[in-house]
Amino acid sequence: MRVSFPDPPPSLPPHARSFPAADSMGSGSKLRLWCSAFACALAFLGARGDDDHLVDITYVESAVAKGAVCLDGSPPAYHLAPGSGSGVSSWLVHFEGGAWCNNATTCLHRSRTPLGSSKEMARQAAFTGILSNASDYNPDFYNWNKVKVRYCDGSSFTGDKEEVDPSTNVHYRGARVWQAVIEDLLAKGMNKAKNALISGCSAGGLTSILHCDRFHQLLPADANVKCLSDAGFFINVKDITGANHAEAFFNDVVATHGSAKNLPSSCTSKLPAGVCFFPQNEVQQIQTPLFILNAAYDSWQVRHILVPEGSDPEWRGCRDDITQCSTKQLETLQGFRDDFLAALGASASAGSRGLFVNSCFAHCQSETQDIWFAPASPALGDRRIADAVGDWFYSRSGFQKTDCPYPCDSTCYTN
């Protein structure tokens, strides 16, 4: 069965649906970096299934005095479902996705949405997939303390500028937000964790990579701490016109938010800070065990990095549905897959690494129940995503598998 996730509904204001990049990116063209349809559906609609449970929001009011605030100056927020039984000393901290803002205009627009203001966030969130509390749907993590951290800074929690933009009153404090939320969770019992997993989808998956070792350092020395990145391995490639929109966009993100000092110094000491937003330039230095879950034909990256909107009208059908691609377009997508696997490189084969790279045209595969763990979920060999991640986390067995090229995989969903 193939399913798709809708774009944010028309009732949302335009600035809540898209985040255009700087005009300077390419000869007159713009890279329109939308939050993934799946992430937006969760953030704005609270999409639910029959077995989801709703979890109330928690505002970290004490963070405001530290300047750890969302873009609009409101307090950070998260949703916490307490653990039970054997899971009371285990913590899953999952970071919400939703792209980035890269200049004063896009960040101002974002500050008026749930991705920039806790005032605009839904008061409850549906927990499903890796956040599910049902053992039948989430066998390894169902009874853990599970946290969904809301994303309200637009920099994958890396920004930190003391000054507030006087023209917009926008705050760039993502790194402080991350620290304040983690400190709040530590005070609620995570400081005694025996198991801990930081995870995230899309921009949240990038958060998991960028903050992986930092998270590990804040947990007890004897805790089993690991990191999971879902659809967060963004690669630095040129689009079909030959322009490098993605690199220019991330350069703008870093400059706008003051992110450089919060990116790994092992990378920024050698490369421009904007390039250090790409995981390929930093994962080799990460010491904490890391699991990379990604589609080789990541649909978000295809739509917004490889073939940004408006770059070629003939790609309209293909960029939305891989089954509509021509032979020539499929050759381009196979080249993107080659670039993706090359970017993973030797870092993917490290002994402590987990790897689940399927050949689906998808983006974010841990938050949706039918993709995470269900009879017809995507699989590599005989292992579904939840099986692979669980086996890796508990060291029951390693998992490092890369799928054969499209269209060999018949287990895919599309989002």
SSE blueprint and pairings:
Blueprint: H1 14-17, H2 37-45, E1 53-59, E2 77-81, E3 90-95, H3 104-110, E4 124-127, E5 145-149, H4 174-187, E6 195-201, H5 203-210, H6 212-218, E7 224-230, H7 245-257, H8 265-268, E8 290-295, H9 299-306, H10 316-320, H11 327-344, E9 354-358, H12 369-372, E10 379-380, E11 383-384, H13 385-393, E12 400-402
Parallel strand pairs: 3-5, 3-6, 6-7, 7-8, 8-9, 9-12
Antiparallel strand pairs: 1-2, 1-4, 2-5, 10-11
Low-confidence stretches: 1-51
Q: Radius of gyration, rounded?
A: 20 Å
Beta content:
5-15%
The average pLDDT is 89
Q: Give the terminus-to-terminus CA distance.
A: 12 Å
Helix fraction bin: 25-40%
**SS content category:** alpha/beta
- The number of strands is 12
The helix count comes to 13
Order of helices and strands: HHEEEHEEHEHHEHHEHHHEHEEHE
Shape: globular
Main-sheet strand order equals: 4-1-2-5-3-6-7-8-9-12
For the sheet with most strands, the description reads: 10 strands, mixed
